[in-house]
Every structure is written in structure tokens, then in C-alpha cells.
Amino acid sequence: MPEHDLDQYHRERLETGLRYINGAVKRRITPRTQAFLKIHKDAYKAALEGAHPGEASRAVVQALDQVYHSAAFYLKPRLPEEHDRLMHYVRLRRLELLANYGDYLGQDLNAGARGASSEMRSAALEMEKSKSWLTIGNELARVDLSDLHKQVHTACGILGIDPNHIVWLMKEWADRNRTFYNQIRQNITDGRWARLAEQLHRDLEELPNVADDEETAANYEKVLLHIRKEYFDVISDDGPEYWFANEYARRLTQKTINAAQK
């Protein structure tokens, strides 16, 4: 728990806090919590540098302790079942990312083919466990619709992902017999630039919260930014409404229209 008095963050207290963080990162936690704890750990290590912990570095540790242990940011699920449910949302998003961008990453992926890559196989197998997403979805379906949406929104708030998109993914996963198709390429083929912009923007925003690690997130980010640069003139990063189909994208659309009129 955070100390109220900054002077209580002496060396022994800082060493104790660092041991706690080292233990916490080994527990069953979400990617978002893992990312926060990395920052938390770095703050403790910085405070312990030198013979005497500085006031500024101790203040950073105290602030992070307060955030981590606050009710609003306490992201560790209380029960294993709660963690499993959260991680199924994460795995669902990871499978979607693989379906959309796997081939851009140089992987010969088919979203519906298990074993297309070790990453896809691992993600698919996780989804096929006895406590699969479909099982969880069936359990949630037994509750009132309002309660279902409340649970989805609460879980997605913890994970930092779009609840409405997760509800759509749940339906897609079931309707398509537990497969995803490449929405990115489909939107490009159809010239649906607004949809493409929304998907790219959402994925860029949520990558840190669903990717396995920083390196994976960085690789995906390069791909997403490359696609964005290829088809959009970006006025601002604030939202997809500031992304406009560039000349190349407009030519593709005109080519599609001309082909349809023949």
C-alpha cells in the first residue's frame, strides 16, 4: 500500500516495494497491468540509485503506488475465473490482429487455418480450451441483456479496449465458425476508407493493451502506420475523422467503379 508520508520511502521501504513489484509481474495479469508494472518497477529502481534516494524519485514512486492501489486502477482480477474471462477478450483481439495483419508481417496466415504459424496456433488453441470464449459467451447470454452489456463494458474498461467492437467480434467469431477474415484487405478492395480508418485507429490505440509484448506491439505498429501512409493523408492523429483518402486510394476507388460499370 502507498505511504502517506514521503519520508517513509526510505531505502528499506523502496527495496520492499521493488520485491513486491517483481512478484506481481509474475502473477496472472493483463497486458495493460503488465505495462504499468514495468513503469512502476523502473521508478523503484531509479529511486534506489545512489547512496540516498532523491525526493523527486521517491515522489514518483509514491504517486505510482497511489495509482496502482486505487480502486479506479486496480486491474488485478479477484478470482482466476475473472482473469480467464478478461484474457479471452484479449485473445479474441489478438486473433483479429493476426487475421488482419499477419500477411503484412511476412507470415503466411489464414485466419481460419489453425497451425498456419506458431503464434496463430497458440492463440487458436487458447480459444479452444474447455473454458473457451464461446462457453463464456453462452454463460453471459443467460443473463439479462443489460447485465451482459454491463459486464462487457466493465471488462473492456479494465483492459482498455472498445466494448462495442468486442461485442461485434463475439458475434463474428460464432457466426463464422470460429474464424476471422481479413477485414483490412476487404475494406481496401471495397474502397471503404472510413471503415479502414476506424479499424486502423482502433488497433493503434489498443495495441499496447492486447499485444503479447512491446516488440510485438512495435512490429504491428510499423505495419499499421505503413498501411495508413499508403492510403491516407493524415491531418491529425486525434481521430480517424482527420484521415482522408489520398490520391492513390481515390484512384483505386475510381478503378473499382469503372470495372463495375463495364
Top keywords for this entry?
single chain, 262 residues, mainly alpha, 3 domains, two-stranded antiparallel sheet, 2% strand, elongated
Number of helical regions: 12
- As a percent range, the share of helical residues equals 55-70%
* Strand arrangement, major sheet: 1-2
Overall outline: elongated
Question: Could you report the average pLDDT, rounded to the nearest whole number?
Answer: 76
Q: How many β-strands, per DSSP?
A: 2
Structural class by secondary-structure content: mainly alpha
Percent of residues in beta strands: under 5%
What is the element string, with H for helices and E for strands? HHHHHHHHHHHEEH
Q: Total domains, how many?
A: 3
What distance separates the N and C termini? Answer: 70 Å
Question: Overview of this structure, please?
Answer:
This protein is mainly alpha-helical. It folds into 3 domains: 6-68, no CATH class; 80-180, no CATH class; 184-261. The chain is 66% helix and 2% strand. It is built from 12 helices and 2 strands; from the N terminus they run αααααααααααββα. It has helices spanning 11-24, 31-47, 55-68, 80-101, 118-127, 133-141, 145-159, 163-175, 183-190, 193-210, 214-231, 247-261, and strands spanning 232-234, 243-245. Strands 1-2 form a two-stranded antiparallel ribbon. A hairpin with an 8-residue loop joins strand 1 (232-234) and strand 2. The protein is elongated, with a radius of gyration of 22 Å.
